[in-house]
Write a structure and sequence with these properties.
This protein is α/β, with parallel strands linked by helices. The strands form three sheets. Strands 3, 5, 6, 7, 8, 15 and 16 form a seven-stranded mixed β-sheet that branches. Helix 9 links the parallel strand 13 and strand 14. The protein is globular, with a radius of gyration of 20 Å.
């Protein structure tokens, strides 16, 4: 009899492969055979630091095939290909009722497993021309769609993206599809900036990750902002999306952004940073937060299905589920040339 193999987190650096019974869907749920699941920064952070007291299956960049249907599911059938929007909101609070369910701070068990039962209305059908790997990439693309919507990116706008990891590169792809006039990326990795250029970045800025003697963080940020403005033919960007979470990069994004523009922080670590608020306030640079995604999956799926966005170059490394621990150790090393690690779960 087939069993369900899953990667369950028990504590800091304690990820275990376990087998168990294949779950059955309840009312409003479907059972999905997971085909692919990407490893993201949140997964890596949870594994590196631990998360709560109860063991849980991690992984939330998932796609697969519906294999069983629970009662009261009308829009999906067995055999449908789906991308899972993991992070189930309560559906009852004020945020959920107003359609901003991402602010409910949802969380649910992940899909780094052979099978996963999940709410049917948060399983989005994907067409045949969207591969399962691309289906797993719908999640980071939805993060990018939400961030760029919050930043006000649109046709003819110039965009600065700080950080060329998987989220930053997804932001690049989405910004291009939205018709941005110019896109600049920054990163500490030359290989990631080379990938950004291949994916359509108009210019890039390599950041020296090591502070020099006598250089304070603010001086470094101002210097980087000046270099960005010199590199961009349009001058200061209309909007900036900060994807690294590095304090100096957050400062840089504020200093670089055009007066009257928007800076959207997406990178969420560390929890507290010092920012040049007076500079932002006197130039009316809006700092507009972005958390997760909310009604953004349909747009992300449409961008991929239409061919306007191809996330496949971002997937650089592949493992099967049996070797998921090796994949996490590789991800933690942050090697050049490794961006998105994809797990084949089937």
């Amino acid at each position: 009899m087939e069993e369900n193999l899953s990667a369950r987190l028990y504590g800091k650096m304690d990820l275990r492969l376990e087998t168990g019974a294949i779950p059955k869907p309840s009312t409003g749920e479907v059972l999905v055979r997971i085909k692919n699941c990407g490893i993201c920064g949140t997964d890596l952070h949870m594994w590196s630091t631990g998360f709560g007291d109860d063991p849980l299956v991690i992984g939330h960049e998932c796609s697969g095939v519906v294999t069983a249907i629970g009662p009261d599911v009308g829009h999906l059938k067995v055999g449908d290909r789906v991308a899972l929007e993991l992070g189930l909101p309560c559906r009852k609070c004020d945020f959920c009722r107003r359609g901003r369910y991402n602010l409910c701070k949802p969380f649910s068990s992940g899909g780094l497993a052979r099978f996963h039962v999940y709410a049917a209305d948060f399983c989005h059908a994907i067409p045949e021309n969207v591969s399962f790997e691309a289906g797993a990439m719908i999640e980071p693309l939805a993060v990018a769609v939400h961030a760029l919507r919050r930043a006000g990116a649109s046709v003819g706008k110039s965009v600065l993206i700080c950080g060329a990891g998987s989220i930053g590169l997804c932001c690049l792809l989405v910004a291009r599809a939205l018709g941005a006039s110019e896109i600049c990326l920054t990163d500490v990795s030359s290989s990631r900036l080379q990938m950004a250029e291949r994916l359509g970045a108009n210019c890039t800025v390599l950041v020296d990750g090591q502070a020099r003697d006598g250089d304070d963080e603010d001086s470094r940020a101002r210097g980087l902002a000046d270099e960005i403005v010199r590199k961009m033919s349009s001058g200061r960007p209309d909007c900036s999306v900060e994807c690294s979470g590095a304090p100096v990069s957050l400062r840089t994004a504020i200093y670089a952004t055009k007066s009257g523009g928007v800076m959207t922080p997406v990178g969420l670590d560390p929890a507290e940073v010092q920012l040049p608020i007076l500079n932002a306030a006197t130039r009316e640079v809006d700092i507009r937060g972005s958390f997760s995604y909310c009604n953004d999956y349909p747009a992300a799926i449409s961008l991929v299905a239409s061919g306007k966005v191809d996330p496949s170059p971002i997937v650089t490394t592949r493992y099967d589920l049996d070797n998921v621990l090796e994949a996490f150790h590789l991800a933690k090393r942050s090697l050049d040339g490794v961006v998105k690690i994809m797990i084949a779960c089937d």
